[in-house]
Amino acid sequence: MLMTALCLTFIVFFLTNLYPNLEKLAKNQGNFRMSDEEVATFLENRGYLQPLPIKYGQWLGVLPGYSIVGTDGKLREKCRAGEDITEPQTAFCGVLQGDWGQSTVFKDTVSSIIATRLGLTGNLMLWVFLLMVPSALLVGILAGMREGSGLDRSLSTFSITTTATPEYVSGVILIAVFSSSAVGLKWFKGTATSAMEGANFENFFLPVLTIALYGMGYIARMTRASMAEVMTAQYIRTARLKGVSFKNIVVKHALRNALIAPFTVIMLQFPWLLNGVVIVETLFNYKGFGWVLVQAAGNNDIELLLGVSVVSVVVVLVTQLISDIGYVYLNPRIKVS
Fold first, then answer.
1. What's this model's pTM, rounded to 2 decimal places?
2. Alpha carbons 121 and 19: distance in angstroms, whole number
3. 150 lies in a domain?
4. Phi, psi of 100 (to 5 degrees)
5. Which domain holds residue 314?
6. Does 80 share its domain with 186?
7. Which of 73, 131, 256, 324 sees the fewest Cβ atoms within 10 Å?
8. Do 38 and 174 have their domain in common?
9. What whole-number distance in Å separates Cα of residue 70 and Cα of residue 32?
């Protein structure tokens, strides 16, 4: 996990610190009419032109921050940005020390911005999971109990349709049908901005439904396939021959074994939902984690973009770890050693 996190964050750091991005950053903070020489001077005075491994180590917090005397004669240090400095000081101030930098767009610390926006997205994803997971499991179990039946075909068609429809399509359709005056069904609000202050059914259901629909179909299909396979197992046939009721066979014998594969798919929804959140939050103007990612990328906010990437990497790796450990409780043949 540590090696994966280091590799992914280094790739993002490399891409965000390409010279065209740094040049754009200098002109945004300074003057759009700056010459190439002035841009180079601006970047050099603020440590942006140091070798990439050194900059990455400083950002990570394993190397001390830069201490540079600029061409204007001023002493600048990464760990004391904005202060009047007379004597150089060696200090570590990176991600590991809790210093994630300053956002050039929002004029606030990256850590406080991410904490606020991640809380809003966490609320959205909580309701998505509460709607998506039980609904998907119910659809998959009902379809898999009697493979090949009319109910199975109907539910499978529904699952495939929801999975094949991306969020930016289903979101637009839901807005047009349920919140547009052109159709007349103004049941919900087409924007979720007001849900940031006080979420309710009217302003929050459409973005929740948009994300849930896309993930629901995939979980339901995996559950259906797993359930159909379990229902044909030898021990299920033995239970039927013993006269065990169909309800008890499903609940007591088939369900636990059928949930092993869907459990992995459910945990995989976390990284996929991060992608969906970017689209849905922008579509419904819900200013959470995905919305901040779009703003950081569109405005070349390097520090904020790096902070968002760190959180995304950690979320994905931790959910995969939970998925691996969760196998033990569903399948007694697997042990953690």
1. 0.76
2. 32
3. yes
4. -95, 5
5. 110-330
6. no
7. 73
8. no
9. 21
Report the distance separating Cα 94 and Cα 64, nearest Å.
9
* Cα-based distances in Å from 163 to 128, 130, 166, 204: 15, 18, 7, 21
- In this structure, the answer to whether residues 79 and 124 fall within a common structural domain is no
Asked if residue 144 and residue 72 are part of one domain, the reply reads no
Domain boundary among 97, 120, 143: 97
Rg for the chain, CA atoms, rounded: 26
Q: What are phi and psi of 83, to 5 degrees?
A: -95, 155
* Residue whose pair of structure tokens reads 């210093």 in the numeric block: 99
Last residue of a domain, one of 66, 97, 128: 97
If asked whether residues 321 and 233 sit together in one domain, one would say: yes
Structure tokens of 273?
């939902």
